[in-house]
Amino acid sequence: MRSIDWRRDRVVAIDQTRLPHDLALIEIGTVEALIDAIKRLAIRGAPALGAAGALGVALAVRLSPDDPASVRSAAAAVRGARPTAVNLAWGVDRALARLDQGPDAVLAEALAVLEEDVACNRALSERGAAWLLDNVAGPVTIQTHCNAGALACVEWGTALGVVRALHERGALAHVYAAETRPLLQGARLTVWELARMGVPHTLVVDSAAASVLARGQAKAVVVGADRVTANGDVINKVGTYPLALAAAHAGVPMVVAAPESTIDLSTPTGKDVDIEVRGPDEVTTWGGAPVAPAGTGTLNYAFDVTPAALVTAIVTESRVILPATGGRPDDRPPR
Ligand SMILES: CSC[C@H]1O[C@H](OP(=O)(O)O)[C@H](O)[C@@H]1O
């Protein structure tokens, strides 16, 4: 089952807010409903957002086939639903570029985005597994953060795609999944995916992940990304930066698995990226019940910036970039 797809005349997606307890699909027939699904993280994860962006334009042009101005306005609203993952804007732009050729051409481009994502993630997963087998003593143990699995993509996954490739080779011993406060993408989604894959795993609280590395229980960190800037800075779920610091101190490789569509050569460094700040309720409540005194102020960064110097390897479908030793995404544009 794909996390997001197109059926007849609408977007169909897994509602990730209902996992792990309910595997429920949502059918999205309007741009407003798509934007809502993106904002409330029913649809989430950089590659999945790229697909949602492209399908959002296909939806808009079907609803307003004779009004390109309305389609462009709707596309801009989808593009702005969440600011940090470059894939959302990239997916919108991919489909919008075909607007002059009509609804069928826009849909064809959007569907191509989905198929390319699947192919890219399978390729980067194999490349990442090979890099880890060449650089980490086996059997491999991995610390993950957030969810960069099939749910965050069209299918297959990026960081969990690497995990899947290692598991299929019989080379994976264990995965430690950080819960990933406040929305618990690790506890709710990554653990759910690892269980379905049959991968041995342990859930840890975010603040324990550094000790898992320091004690040698995990020999590599593997995460996804929402944007990689031209100098190799990695923007990913908040908590990735401290994990990279811990990995460096423990002498453990920090591996980022991401398709080329997540690399943004137009943005020089992580300092130039708009980091989404989300509302206080995600931090001050759990299950609707307050966990902090009413009115408590919060600083709910959804992402953080890991400097290139702390990134051992960025694995894409076409290359491995080594930022910590001077490699840069803009050194050699993909072939
Ligand atoms: C494979 S991209 C997954 C990436 O997206 C997540 O963010 P969110 O759950 O807010 O969409 C997180 O940064 C993951 O690493």
Automatic annotation (TrEMBL):
Its EC number is 5.3.1.23. The keyword Isomerase applies. It is an enzyme of class 5 (isomerase). GO terms for molecular function: isomerase activity. It catalyses: 5-(methylsulfanyl)-alpha-D-ribose 1-phosphate = 5-(methylsulfanyl)-D-ribulose 1-phosphate. Pathway: Amino-acid biosynthesis; L-methionine biosynthesis via salvage pathway; L-methionine from S-methyl-5-thio-alpha-D-ribose 1-phosphate: step 1/6. The active site is at residue 226. Substrate binds at residues 44-46, 82, 185, 236-237. The keyword Amino-acid biosynthesis applies. Keywords: Amino-acid biosynthesis, Isomerase, Methionine biosynthesis. The record marks 146 as: Transition state stabilizer. InterPro entries: IF-2B-related, IF-M1Pi, IF_2B-like_C, Initiation_fac_2B_a/b/d, M1Pi_N, NagB/RpiA_transferase-like. Belongs to the EIF-2B alpha/beta/delta subunits family. MtnA subfamily. Catalyzes the interconversion of methylthioribose-1-phosphate (MTR-1-P) into methylthioribulose-1-phosphate (MTRu-1-P). This is Methylthioribose-1-phosphate isomerase.
